[in-house]
TrEMBL record:
Transmembrane segments: none
Main location: cytoplasm
GO molecular function: flavin adenine dinucleotide binding; tRNA (uracil(54)-C5)-methyltransferase activity, 5,10-methylenetetrahydrofolate-dependent
UniProt: FAD binding residues: 9-14
Pfam families: GIDA
Broad enzyme group: transferase
Protein name: Methylenetetrahydrofolate--tRNA-(uracil-5-)-methyltransferase TrmFO
One GO BP: tRNA wobble uridine modification
EC id: 2.1.1.74
Annotated family: Belongs to the MnmG family. TrmFO subfamily.
Catalysed reactions, semicolon-separated: uridine(54) in tRNA + (6R)-5,10-methylene-5,6,7,8-tetrahydrofolate + NADH + H(+) = 5-methyluridine(54) in tRNA + (6S)-5,6,7,8-tetrahydrofolate + NAD(+); uridine(54) in tRNA + (6R)-5,10-methylene-5,6,7,8-tetrahydrofolate + NADPH + H(+) = 5-methyluridine(54) in tRNA + (6S)-5,6,7,8-tetrahydrofolate + NADP(+)
Physiological role: Catalyzes the folate-dependent formation of 5-methyl-uridine at position 54 (M-5-U54) in all tRNAs.
Length: 451
């Protein structure tokens, strides 16, 4: 009988790892402590629940590294990515997802798979034997966190993730706001009008920044440190870095024209993105926050168009733990000191839903091949998957290691191409062409192995 693969954590990474291994013919047990043991960030007991944003970000697989990662995952039969497309919402050039039907679909597919069993018992120690993948994500339980720290000889690093608020669409004042994707991006009318935009004058922006800086914030517990991941900064932290930071970040007014006042250029614009298929919920883009709930409601209602807003969910902040992977993991994502244990997802030091699921895909295939006695060839470094794995398992500087989204800065240069902004389009296309060829060859090599 084929050895069982145990996967701890049923988020994006754990769900994808389980699917890949089960599809290869390996029996899998997913150990997901929810709903028996709850977390403050999750709302359901479903697998692959989307906790923060509902966006899988850019879908451009020729000019964007995360879009390339989408493409690679689809070619490898990704459950997470296929389900994301099945529950896609209009979002310009981005892949936004109707979060509840998405996670329900992933859960249903995993429960129905003949090679998968789901257990809701908590695993709080690293096992001495068996084959395991730990994909416990940013909310690794205290007991397991201590076990990992004891095994690795050092505390897991930590930073803080912040959650953006969600607004009921019917409470947005559309006499002030308007629907438009930045630069009218998108192939359909729905995509070109995927965002709701709330304009601000200079005086309104300055008053908003003043209120943001003065608002009551969440205090951290003694011994906690607030090392934020730059891709998910709370808006008040951005504002503290300079009064213009938000206006050049999530509130930038470029690529948008207010049809209510077409001759007046807004000083800043707050965008909201659709959060469900019904179009009844919208999340405020880039507005992760550590403000206390009462302060959030009053400050966000200062935004023109949101003066009467009602919130389906206010923002929040939570601790996110991750390994110093360059010192702890080998190139097969195994713990060097305990090679029967692999890690996947955000706990390895990747950031984002797509990157987490991609590391689950890679670890699930690696573990299944090992169990079946068919070691998987090394994932080519020139692919998006390979660039991420190389970064977290040795390419990054261990002393300054921080969570990383996939980006072309992780890719090896293509010789003979022009550098700088002017050469960027040709350079990015060369990266994605090279990656697609390498990824296709890697998948073909696995299919060619004898059963």
């Amino acid at each position: 009988m084929t050895e069982t693969l145990h996967i701890v954590g049923g988020g994006m990474a754990g769900s994808e790892a389980a699917w890949q291994a089960a599809e290869a013919g390996v029996p899998v047990v997913i150990h997901e402590m929810r709903p028996k043991v709850e977390t403050f960030a999750h709302r359901t007991g479903n697998l692959a629940e989307m906790v923060c944003s509902n966006s899988f970000r850019s879908d451009d697989h020729e000019q964007n590294a995360v879009g390339l990662l989408h493409w690679e995952m689809l070619q490898a039969g990704s459950l997470v990515m296929r389900s994301a497309y099945d529950h896609r919402l209009p979002a310009g050039g981005a892949l936004a997802v109707d979060r509840d039907p998405f996670s329900e679909a992933v859960t249903d597919r995993l429960r129905a798979h003949p090679n998968i069993t789901i257990s809701n018992e908590e695993i709080d120690t690293l096992p001495d034997d068996g084959r395991w993948i730990f994909a416990t994500g940013p909310l690794t339980s205290e007991g397991l966190g201590k076990s990992i720290a004891t095994e690795t000889g050092a505390d897991a690093l930590a930073f803080f993730d912040a959650i953006a608020p969600i607004v009921y669409a019917e409470t947005i004042d559309m006499d002030t706001a308007w629907r438009q994707s930045r630069y009218d991006k998108g192939e359909t009318e729905d995509e070109r009008k995927a965002y709701i935009n709330c304009p601000m004058t200079r005086d309104e922006y300055e008053a908003f920044i003043d209120a943001l800086l003065a608002a009551d914030k969440t205090e951290f517990h003694e011994g906690e440190t607030a090392g934020y991941f730059d891709g998910c900064l709370p808006i008040e932290v951005m504002a503290e870095r300079g009064r213009e930071t938000l206006r050049h970040g999530p509130m930038k007014p470029v690529g948008l024209t207010n049809p209510h006042q077409p001759d007046v250029k807004p000083w800043a614009v707050v965008q909201l993105r659709r959060d469900n298929a019904l179009g009844t919920l919208y999340n405020i883009v880039g507005f992760q926050t550590k403000m206390k709930y009462g302060a959030q409601a009053s400050v966000f209602r200062m935004i023109p168009g949101l003066q009467d807003a009602k919130f389906a969910r206010l923002g929040g902040i939570h601790r996110n733990t991750f390994l110093n992977s360059p010192t702890l993991l080998d190139d097969q994502m195994r713990l060097r000191s305990r090679p029967n244990v692999r890690f996947a997802g955000q706990i390895t030091g990747v950031e984002g839903y797509v990157e987490s699921a991609a590391m689950g895909l890679a670890s699930g295939r690696m573990a299944a091949a090992e169990i079946l006695g068919r070691p998987v060839p090394a994932i080519p470094q020139d692919t998006a998957h390979g660039a991420l794995i190389h970064h977290i398992t040795g390419g990054a500087e261990a002393k300054t290691f921080q969570p990383m989204n996939v980006n072309f800065g992780l890719f090896r240069p293509v010789e003979g191409l022009k550098g700088g902004r002017r050469g960027r389009r040709d350079r990015y296309k060369a990266y994605t062409d090279r990656a697609k060829a390498a990824w296709s060859d890697w998948l073909t090599a696995q299919e060619a192995q004898p059963a």
